[in-house]
Amino acid sequence: MCCVSLTVFFQMKSRLKSAGFGITSSTAFFQDANKLFLNEQAKWVHLKEFARKNAANALSVSNMVMGMASILCSLNGQNHAACWLVLIGYLLDLADGAVARQLNACSALGAKLDDFADFTTFGIATSLILRTPSLLDNILCMLYVLSVFTRLCFFSSGIPFMYRGLPCIYSSAILVCVSLLTGGNMAVLRILAVAMILFMVRQNFYPHDRVLESQAWKKVVYIGGVAMVFCSSFPPACVYYLLWSVSYILFPTTLWSSKV
Hints:
Layout: H1 2-75, H2 79-102, H3 108-127, H4 135-153, E1 162-164, H5 168-182, H6 186-201, E2 205-207, H7 216-231, H8 234-250, H9 252-256
Antiparallel strand pairs: 1-2
């Protein structure tokens, strides 16, 4: 009888241990799952923060890539493609500053990337449309690059919402549009390049071109530019960008001031 009682006791104890072990395992499983969920949630938060901080930088890098691609096209004699790539860089450059301010992600790195991208696309890449075997044309190319470099060095005017010197993005757009419309007529491009160099180094004041942060009509202008690049044949698109850029030079305050 005693042996039977001991056997029942040990069986009950074994069952209780088994039940307790099941509860412990279940609790551990839910704890691990909760930790995993929290870790995944934290990773997602970090990923979103990284994307927010670097969205504008990605646009600047894309602009730089467009410039490098344009340089390669020019060196291979594909001037038409080179000009179109510069115009795409034009749109990316207008967007990166707006995105940085909208997401509150302005940084010293972003400012440097923007300058590097501008120098690549609107300096080196644009100057190559002026390149010919002529020594004088090659000198003009170098002068244009130096004028863009000078313009970028004097970017900060010390006056809120103002540039010093014509932004190189507009001189570049005018040159590539005229190149496309005239079939690369070097006589016209030489005269225009000299004029753009003078505009950039004169250090006159121009308003910040916050197209995407101004009135609705300016945003429509930008959207129209995007549509022209991807949905239109090149003559209307070139005329569109040419008028846009010339209006900035002729009527900078009345049309394109950030206060308007």
